[in-house]
Every structure is written in structure tokens, then in C-alpha cells.
TrEMBL record:
Residues 10-87 form the ACT domain. This is Phosphoserine phosphatase. InterPro entries: ACT-like_dom_sf, ACT_dom. It is an enzyme of class 3 (hydrolase). The lineage of its organism: unclassified sequences, metagenomes, ecological metagenomes. Coiled coil: none annotated. Pfam families: ACT_6 (PF13740). GO terms for molecular function: hydrolase activity.
Length: 204
């Protein structure tokens, strides 16, 4: 079998978030007409974590792309890391997208490391992998007391649970013995299409 000449590179950028940072990096990549295969970004307390997975076009040299990205990162005051991804590993990663996806949502007055540890332990015991963790609630003040505000965190996990019934029961047990609620649901079109419609039938 002929050796593949395709090049796939994972780009990781970290540093202080600032307006125009993503646009500046994309401008460099656009000059070489690269194909973006995947990307994700998160910002916690103004600290940026940005990942871009891209394919190098046949007509471009990866060394030139990486050099320009390195200079741009220096101008932006960010740290940059390049990781070459073997094509077979990329294809293996792509094949995993057919596996089941589930959403685990935690709701509490406040979330502790112990709460998250218990849920994460169930996830790993069921042979599932965490794809993303997102905060759905607003930021909580340390100075102002707010009895209404809640902390909400959502896990997106992928895979096939070892025992679905046992997993649901374990999550229920954790919720029952703690000060937070857990929602577990399959991530599919039916979850995303749920809507609540209200009609005002008052004749006035």
C-alpha cells in the first residue's frame, strides 16, 4: 500500500484571551488554503484554550504554515504547540463518531469537586469518554449571596455503557445522597427538538 502523503496537524493555543485572536490565526491558515477538520475553544477567567485540527493541502508546505503561525502567536502573546497526527489515527478517531452520545447535566446550589468526582467515576466505570464539559449557568459571585442562582454543568459523553440500567441507578443514588440533581439523556434529534409553546387564550 502506498504511503499516504496527507498531513494532519493539531494546533493548540493557550494564553490570555483577546478580541481578534482567532481571526488572526485563521487569516494565516487561510493564506495556505488549509482544510479545518475540527476545532474547539474555551475561556476560563480570561485564559484561552483553543484547538484547531487541520489538513495541509498538497500544494502547501507544513513548515511554512507552522513558521507563520509561530510568528503570529508571538505577536499575539500566546503559547502555541504543534502535534502531527498520523492519518490512520485520525481515521480511527473519525470512526468513533458513530458511537452513542449522552448528556449528563448537574444542577446544584453549588458544585464541589466531590460532586464532579462521583459523576466522573460512574462515567469511567461505564467505559464512556467525556467529549466536552460546559457550564450552562452564569458566574457566581463570592461576595454577594444569591439564594436563587444555581450552578449547572453539562457533560457530553460518548460510547456504549456497560450496563445502562445500573448506570442510571448509580446516578440516581448519587443525586439522592447529595445536594444536587442529575439529568441523563441520549443526545439525539428528539432531545434537541423539544420545545414548550404557550398560547394566551385570554379574550381581553
Amino acid at each position: 500500500m502506498a504511503k499516504s502523503k496527507k498531513e494532519v496537524i493539531l494546533l493548540n493555543i493557550s494564553g490570555k484571551d483577546k478580541p481578534g485572536l482567532t481571526a488572526s490565526l485563521m487569516e494565516v491558515l487561510a493564506q495556505y488554503n488549509v482544510n479545518i477538520l475540527d476545532m474547539g475553544q474555551s475561556v476560563i477567567h480570561q485564559d484561552l484554550g483553543l484547538g484547531i485540527l487541520f489538513e495541509v493541502p498538497k500544494e502547501s508546505k507544513s513548515s511554512s504554515i507552522l513558521k507563520d503561525l509561530l510568528f503570529k502567536s508571538y505577536e499575539l502573546g500566546t503559547h502555541i504547540k504543534f502535534t502531527p497526527i498520523p492519518v490512520d489515527k485520525y481515521e480511527e478517531w473519525v470512526s468513533n463518531q458513530g458511537k452513542g452520545r449522552y448528556i449528563i447535566t448537574l444542577l446544584a446550589p453549588r458544585l464541589t469537586a466531590s460532586d464532579l468526582s462521583q459523576v466522573a467515576t460512574v462515567i469511567v466505570e461505564q467505559k464512556l469518554n467525556i467529549d466536552t464539559i460546559s457550564r450552562l449557568s452564569g458566574r457566581k459571585s463570592l461576595m454577594k449571596k444569591d439564594n436563587v442562582a444555581k450552578a449547572v454543568v453539562e457533560f457530553t459523553v460518548r460510547g456504549t455503557p456497560v450496563d445502562m440500567t445500573a448506570m442510571k441507578q448509580e446516578l440516581l443514588n448519587i443525586s439522592s445522597g447529595s445536594d444536587f440533581d442529575i439529568a441523563f439523556q441520549e443526545d439525539n434529534v428528539f432531545r434537541r427538538s423539544r420545545r414548550l409553546v404557550c398560547f394566551d387564550m385570554d379574550s381581553t
